[in-house]
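Input C-alpha cells:
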C-alpha cells in the first residue's frame, strides 16, 4: 500500500543567520532567557504540525509547555509578540508563519499537492456551519458576498507562484522570508485586479493568476530580471507599462501588455 501523503513536513530550512534577523533580535532582546529557544521550537512544532498550524488556545499553550519545558505563559508571550512583529499570524484562531509556509511550499510542490487545512480546522468549520446564526432585528440583512475566483488568500495560487518563482524562474538557492511572502501576496492581488478590470477578448480563454504571473515574469524588462519580489511588487504598474511599450514597438508580443490600460 502506498504511503499516504502527509499534511505536515519533517524539516525546514534554517538560515545560519536567523538569530541576527532584526525581528528575531527583538524577540531575543525582549525575552533574553527563553525567547530564541521558544522561537526555534515554535518553528519546529509548526513544521511537524498538521497543516503547519496550531490552535491559539490556553490548552494548546499548556501542551506546548510540556513539550518545550518552558512555562505556558512565556510561550504565549513569545507568540503574541511574534504576531505583533508579523513573524506569526493568528488567522481564525490558528497560528501560522507565512515565511515558513513559503519555504515548505517547495516540499508540498514536490509531492504534487498543496497543503490542506488541518483536521482540527476542518472540524471547527463543520461545527461553525452547524451552529444556526441568531437573528438580530436591529441589523439589516447583508447580501452574501460572491466569492472571488482568484483571491490572494487562495493557497493554491500562492503555492504555485512560489514554486514557479524559485524553481523555474530564479533557479537559485532557496531563500524565502516574511518580506518575500508579503510581496508575493501583493503581486497576486495586483494581478487579480488586472484580470478583473480586463476581461479576455472574444475567443480567448481567461488567464489564471498563476498563468498571468508566469507571463509577466517571461516578459520582465531587463532591468527587473535580477530584482527580487519586493521590488517587482512596488514597481508592478511600471513593469506592466514597460511591457506594453515593448509590445507596441514590436519587440515582444503577449497578453500581459493587454492588461496595461
Amino acid at each position: 500500500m502506498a504511503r499516504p501523503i502527509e499534511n505536515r513536513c519533517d524539516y525546514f530550512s534554517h538560515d545560519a543567520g536567523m538569530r541576527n534577523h532584526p525581528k528575531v533580535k527583538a524577540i531575543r532582546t525582549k525575552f533574553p532567557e527563553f525567547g530564541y529557544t521558544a522561537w526555534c521550537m515554535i518553528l519546529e512544532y509548526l513544521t511537524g504540525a498538521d497543516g503547519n498550524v496550531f490552535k491559539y488556545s490556553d490548552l494548546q499553550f499548556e501542551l506546548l509547555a510540556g513539550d518545550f519545558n518552558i512555562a505556558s505563559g512565556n510561550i504565549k508571550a513569545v507568540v503574541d509578540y511574534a504576531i505583533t512583529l508579523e513573524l506569526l499570524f493568528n488567522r481564525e484562531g490558528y497560528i501560522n508563519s507565512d515565511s515558513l509556509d513559503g519555504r515548505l511550499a517547495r516540499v508540498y510542490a514536490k509531492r504534487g499537492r498543496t497543503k490542506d487545512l488541518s483536521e482540527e480546522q476542518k472540524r471547527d468549520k463543520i461545527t461553525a456551519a452547524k451552529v444556526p446564526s441568531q437573528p438580530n432585528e436591529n441589523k439589516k440583512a447583508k447580501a452574501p458576498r460572491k466569492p472571488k475566483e482568484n483571491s490572494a488568500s487562495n493557497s493554491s495560487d500562492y503555492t504555485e507562484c512560489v514554486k514557479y518563482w524559485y524553481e523555474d524562474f530564479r533557479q537559485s538557492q532557496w531563500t524565502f522570508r516574511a518580506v518575500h511572502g508579503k510581496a508575493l501576496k501583493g503581486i497576486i492581488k495586483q494581478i487579480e485586479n488586472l484580470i478583473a478590470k480586463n476581461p479576455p477578448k472574444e475567443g480567448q480563454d481567461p488567464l489564471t493568476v498563476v498563468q498571468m504571473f508566469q507571463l509577466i515574469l517571461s516578459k520582465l524588462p531587463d532591468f527587473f530580471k535580477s530584482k527580487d519580489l519586493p521590488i517587482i511588487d512596488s514597481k508592478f504598474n511600471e513593469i506592466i507599462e514597460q511591457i506594453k511599450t515593448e509590445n507596441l514597438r514590436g519587440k515582444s508580443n503577449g497578453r500581459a501588455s493587454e492588461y496595461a490600460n
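The first helix runs from residue 22 to 30. The mean pLDDT is 81.
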